[in-house]
Amino acid sequence: MKITCQSPVNIAVIKYWGKENVELNLPTNGSISVTLSMEHIKTITCVESNEQIKQDSLVLNGELVEIPGRMKLVIDKMRNIAIRCGNRQIKYKSESPLESPADPRHFITIKSRNTFPTAAGLASSASGYSCLVYCLSLLYHLDAYLTRTELSEFARLGSGSSCRSLFPGLVEWHLGDSSSTSVADSICDSWEDLDILVCIVKSEKKKVGSTVGMQQTVKSSALFKHRVEGMPAKLETMKRAIIAKDFETFANLTMADSNQFHAVCLDTFPPIIYLNEDSRWFIEFVHEYNRMAGETAVAYTFDAGPNPVLYMRSKYTGDVVRLLKQLVDVTKFKSIRDFNECVTIVNELGENIPKTNIPVEIIHAKCGAGPSLCKEEGI
Amino acid sequence: MKITCQSPVNIAVIKYWGKENVELNLPTNGSISVTLSMEHIKTITCVESNEQIKQDSLVLNGELVEIPGRMKLVIDKMRNIAIRCGNRQIKYKSESPLESPADPRHFITIKSRNTFPTAAGLASSASGYSCLVYCLSLLYHLDAYLTRTELSEFARLGSGSSCRSLFPGLVEWHLGDSSSTSVADSICDSWEDLDILVCIVKSEKKKVGSTVGMQQTVKSSALFKHRVEGMPAKLETMKRAIIAKDFETFANLTMADSNQFHAVCLDTFPPIIYLNEDSRWFIEFVHEYNRMAGETAVAYTFDAGPNPVLYMRSKYTGDVVRLLKQLVDVTKFKSIRDFNECVTIVNELGENIPKTNIPVEIIHAKCGAGPSLCKEEGI
Description:
2 copies of one chain form a homodimer.
Chain A: E1 2-7, E2 10-14, E3 19-21, E4 26-27, E5 31-35, E6 43-49, E7 57-60, E8 63-65, H1 69-85, E9 108-114, H2 124-139, H3 148-158, E10 170-173, E11 184-188, E12 194-200, H4 210-220, H5 224-229, H6 231-243, H7 247-266, H8 277-293, E13 298-302, E14 308-313, H9 314-327, E15 329-334, E16 359-366, E17 372-373
Parallel strand pairs in A: 7-9, 15-16
Antiparallel strand pairs in A: 1-6, 1-17, 2-5, 3-4, 5-10, 6-9, 7-8, 10-11, 12-14, 12-16, 13-14
Helix pairs in contact in A: 1-2, 1-3, 2-3, 6-7
C-alpha cells in the first residue's frame, strides 16, 4: 500500500523564533505564513507500507539516511493513533485513495524529495514534515477521525513551522498553551492579487541553524522578551489586514517583523547575522521601488538566511521582474506566468540602487494550496 | 591672539543613539566611552581672534566652508558667557597660555583638521567640537569660571557625543534632565592594560547619517524603548566594571551593547544597516579568538558604520595583530608600540574564520588624555 503526496513550503510573514518547550516544539509566540503554490517549490513524499518491509527507512533526495529522532516520534505517534482509531466511529470522509487503511503495525518506506536545494534557506523541513504527516494520515485514514488542525500537531512535533504547511493560503500557527492547542489554522484560503518572488542569492549552508539559533536568542537577547510581548497585538493586526486584503498593512507589518526578527538575532550573544550585503541590496531596492511607485507595492521578508522573499500586488510583478533583470544577474527565472507584455510602472530607481552583479535565482509563486495527492514520478 | 589645541576621538562602549530633545542634543540615554590616545587620530584646531578679522570663518581640512548652524550656536553661547564672566570673580586657575582673555566681541578665524578621513565612521564631530570648545575656553579664559563638566555642555550642543571627548580615560555622558545636567564626567583617567585597534574597512560615506538615523529609530523601532529602559542598570554595571578594571564584564557588555544598538537600527523602518560582511568577519573573528584564548581577551564595537574598533588586554595585542596580518589584507598599520617580539598565544583559529582579502587599515591607540594645547603646524 502506497501513498504519494506533495506539500508546499510556507514563508512566515510574522516569524516563529523561540521555543517555549524544545521537546514539544511549542513556540514563544504565534506566527502567520503564506503557503506557496507548488509549481516550482515543494516536497514530494511517497510512503509505502506492507508486510514484506523489514524496517522503517528513509530515502531523502535519493540518499538513504537515518530517520531523525523527531521523525521517528511523529511516525510512532501517528501509528499509535491509527491503532487506537481502528475501533472507533468514523467522523469524516477520508480523502485517502486507499479503500482501507494500511496496518499501522507494518514497517514503512519513506521516499522524499525536495524540488529545491535543501540548504537554500527555504524551510525544507516545513514542506517535508507536512508532506509526511499528510501521507501518513491518508495511509492510515487518520483524516477520518482528525481534523487538519488536529493533524497539524504531529507536523509541529516534527518541525515547528511545518504545521503551517498543512493549510492553503494564509495560515496562523496559534501560540496555544499545550501540545494540542499549539496548532495551525487557515486565516483565508487564497489571495488572488498576491504574487511571490523567492529570490535565492546563495545556497551556502547556514552557519547557525534555526533550532540552535533561536535557543541562543531566548537565552541571551535582552530585547527578545519585548518582541514576544508585542506579538499578540501584531498577530491581530496582521490577521485583520489579511482578511481585509489590506496589502499596505500586510506589507509593512511583514517587512517590520522580518527586520525585528533579524534585530533580535543580532541582539543575541554571540550575535546571529543572517542578512548579508545582497540582502541589504534587496531591502533598499524594495523601499526605493515603493517610494517611486508612490505606494507600498512590494514587501520583503527574510527567514534564517540571506534570501529575500518578495510579496507584491500582482500588477507590479512584471515591472519588478523587469527591473531586477536590469539590476542584478538573474541566473534563472522560474515563472508561472508570462510577463512579456507588462506595462512599465517604475521607470528607473534612484542612484542608491546601483546595478550589481549579485547572481540571483528567482522563483515565482502564488499563494497556494495545501498538501495533495500526486504521482510518484521521479522521487 | 591665537590658541591651538588637539582633541581626541572617543569610541562609545555604551552607545548614544536617540535624542530626547533634538535642538539641545539631549539624549534618550546616558552613554560611556573610551577616549583614544592622539598619536594617530585627533583633531587639531586653531582659533584666532583680533580686531582685524572682519567675520567669523571656518577652514575645515584646508577648505573654507560655511560655519554650520550648531557651531554658530556654540560660539555665540561661549562668547556670551565670556562677556558675562568679564566682571566676575575668577574661580579656578586658567590653563590658557594667553595672559589675558581675548575680547569676545571680536570675530574669530577657525582652522581645523582631522588626522583621519572625515567619513571613516569615526566621530570626527566629537573630536572637532570638543577641540573647538576647548580652544574657545582657553581663548576667553572660560576655564577660570567653569569646570570641564560645565564646558562639556557647549560641546554637547554642537555634537552630542563630543562632550565625552573633553575628558581623558573612560567617560560618562550623563542622561541628566536638562541642558546643564546632561553633561560629561570622567569615570577613571586611564586603563593601562587596555589596547585599542581601530580597524578601517571602508571609508565610504555613510548612507544614513547618525542624526537622521537615530530619529528614525526613536520614531519607528518597537524595541528601542526597551533598550532605553534597560540603560540605567547597564550603565551602572559598566561603571562598576570599569572602576574594578574587570575586563571580562567590560568586554562582554561592550559587545552586547554594540549588537543591541545595531539591532535597534535594524528594527527601524526602513531599517538602518551599518554592519556589512567585513564587520561580520570581525565579529566572528573576535568570538573565535576568545574561544581559543579561553577567556574574553578582545571585544568589538561598531559605531554608525562598518568599521570595528577592538578593545583588548594589552598582552593579547601583538598576537591579535599577527593573526590579522595573516588573515586579512592589512594595508596600513599605524602602531604606537613595537610588536616584533610578541609571544604567540592563539596559534590558529577554526575554519569558520577563513583568510579573506578584506583591505583593512589598522590604527593602534591606548586609552588617552583629553584635549591639550599643541603646535599649529600643518593645519
